[in-house]
Write a structure and sequence with these properties.
This protein has 469 residues and is mainly α. It starts with a helix and ends in a 24-residue tail after the last helix. The chain is globular. Helix 3 runs antiparallel to helix 8 and helix 17 runs antiparallel to helix 18.
């Protein structure tokens, strides 16, 4: 994935013929997707943007194959079969996050330059092959290579690509559209956890990896290649299916045609708002990674069976699904500052509540709370970045902001594993996450939206939606 991105970024082809062949292939695929989109748009009784939501949703569904909740099902069986420590297994998550830090800005630029459809299609192919390759990962180095590759796809192209795509197709309905995208991801979390659990219980670890890789290719490859169009204007539509803007309404370079202010990456990097979002969201995902990678093993340590632990993770994903829609509705009706503050407080409470788990019932309750927090972490940041900085360079700006997520996930999973290996308990890690959640709530609650020089009114966190639809 990284090598391919470097190739398209810098033009390092082995020959002119190879460049021409690749260019022709990409143009043909783009032409096919445009023909399909124009024909469907003319015939469908609803906005084609919802087809784009479906196609993007298949990639968020598929990206759950290397999720931390799916890996949680593998931790104890792999530790038993291969003799690996939990820290070593969790290290694959950290390696994926570390790699993503360096790749993320390049992917963001590629999304803006080459289009989301191309990035997501290649990403789904890479992800499917990476998951299948783990059947041969009986040594740590091979496991790290395959799973970390999957984690890079999880972190970067899907996260940035789908967020940029939906932000371009929707403005007023952006929250609910992104909520639906992550509803698909939550359903993917349920399916991948159950597939992995059943395959490990009835066959083997290798069978579980093959099943997950096949699922990725079957579900997401064709929809991302054939149904995604990067911008509604390409097929004669407008965001939210609004009427076309008149010639008198054509705006200047930095003004979006639908009332949002577009910032360049350079301008965004000069704002305090970008770095507040980056850091606070990074803390949120550090907590999520530190808990979710180890939660199945934690439940087993508390006396639950593997089936009960898998069921708890399934409850987590089910709540995540419905809560994605809830957070989408909330973010359309309130400010991101308020929503993020509440989410960070909820994350702190969730971290502490893990220490009270003593039975299946309490485990299921905590798992539901974890799902609620995870849903907010998925839905709020994409809306926040687009509300702050507009649509035009959203891929590049998200590429910068996602580095906080990757640093957080790199630290979180490894930190929890290290605390367990040193003390035999996750208590110190969970208490640390609760404290950081409270600090994050205070920081984001005191934040203010970015204001460009000369502007009286800000665009961003404090701006309420223009309508409730």
């Amino acid at each position: 994935m990284a090598a391919w991105l470097c190739t398209i970024q810098h033009g390092h082809y082995r020959s002119v013929d190879q460049f021409q062949q690749d260019t022709l292939y990409f143009r043909v695929m783009n032409d096919i997707s445009l023909v399909i989109a124009r024909n469907l748009s003319a015939r469908l009784p609803f906005y084609y943007g919802w087809i784009v939501v479906f196609a993007a949703g298949t990639t968020t569904f598929a990206r759950m194959a290397p999720s931390t909740t799916t890996l949680a099902v593998f931790v104890s069986p792999m530790a038993d079969e291969f003799g690996w420590s939990r820290t070593l297994i969790a290290g694959s998550v950290s390696l994926g996050a570390l790699s993503s830090i360096f790749i993320s800005p390049a992917v963001g630029r590629a999304v803006d330059r080459y289009g989301v459809r191309l990035i997501l299609t290649v990403s789904m192919l890479v992800l499917g092959v990476a998951m299948i390759s783990l059947v041969w990962a009986t040594m740590p180095v091979f496991f790290y290579m395959g799973f970390a590759t999957g984690r890079v796809v999880f972190h970067v192209p899907v996260q940035i690509g789908t967020g940029a795509l939906i932000s371009r197709w929707f403005i007023r309905k952006r929250g609910r559209a992104i909520g639906i995208i992550y509803l698909a991801g939550a359903v993917g979390g349920i399916v991948t956890v159950q597939i992995a659990s059943l395959a490990i219980s009835h066959w083997s670890i290798g069978a579980a990896w093959i099943s997950l890789g096949g699922l990725v290719l079957a579900v997401a490859l064709l929809p991302s290649a054939l149904l995604i169009v990067d911008r509604p204007e390409t097929i004669g539509l407008q965001p939210d299916n609004q009427p076309p803007v008149s010639s008198e309404g054509v705006v200047e370079l930095e003004e979006d045609s639908h009332g949002e202010t577009d910032w360049t990456p350079r301008q965004a990097m000069r704002t305090r708002a970008l770095w507040v979002l980056t850091v606070v969201v990074g803390v949120l995902f550090m907590t999520q990674a530190g808990i979710s990678v180890h939660v199945a093993a934690f439940f087993l340590d508390r006396g639950l069976s593997l089936t009960a632990a898998a069921n708890a993770i399934t409850i987590n994903a089910a709540v995540n699904a419905f809560a994605s829609l809830m957070w989408g509705a909330i973010i359309e009706r309130t400010t991101v500052r308020v929503a993020m503050t509440g989410l960070m407080l909820l994350s702190a409470a969730c971290s502490l509540s893990l220490l009270s788990v003593t039975s299946e019932g309490s485990a299921f309750g905590v798992a539901a709370l974890l799902g609620l927090v995870a849903a907010g972490g998925n839905v709020i940041p994409p809306v926040a970045f687009a509300s702050y900085f507009g649509r035009r360079s959203i891929g590049s700006i998200r590429g910068i902001g996602e580095t906080g997520v990757q640093v957080g996930q790199m630290i979180g999973a490894l930190f929890s594993g290290l605390m367990y290996d040193l003390s035999g308990s996750y208590a110190a890690a969970f208490i640390t996450f609760a404290i950081l959640g409270l600090v994050g709530a205070l920081v984001v609650n005191s934040s203010r939206p970015p204001i460009r020089a000369g502007e009286m009114d800000s665009v961003g966190l404090e701006q309420l939606p223009r309508d409730g639809n």
